[in-house]
Design a protein that fits this description.
3-stranded antiparallel sheet; 2 helices; alpha+beta; single chain; about 100 residues
Length: about 100
């Protein structure tokens, strides 16, 4: 019983370290010309920059489409980074495969 508690405490420490590592990772994603997104490894958005020429009224639909595409790409890149960090930080957890 004590060994299980000890193992759980160690897993909690590993998870806390991993969260700190993921918070420190900042990914720059430029999936679409004119839109730049910064996202952390823990999937918190830091910045979204939009080029001035995309902010014109006649570009609204294009901007919406491109922004959605960019946000989805940023999330996907962040998830891949998180999975890679988790695999290296916790390689011996049964059933956890990345």
């Amino acid at each position: 019983m004590f060994d299980q508690m000890k193992n759980l405490m160690e897993m909690k420490k590993q998870a806390d370290r991993l969260k700190k590592q993921l918070d420190a990772i900042v990914l720059d994603v430029q999936e679409v010309n004119g839109i730049s997104i910064q996202i952390t490894g823990s999937q918190q958005f830091r910045a979204i920059e939009i080029a001035p020429d995309l902010l014109q009224a006649d570009q609204k639909e294009r901007l919406q489409r491109d922004l959605l595409r960019s946000v989805n790409a940023a999330i996907k890149k962040s998830q891949a980074s998180a999975a890679q960090q988790m695999a290296s930080a916790m390689p011996n957890i049964p059933g956890l495969k990345f």
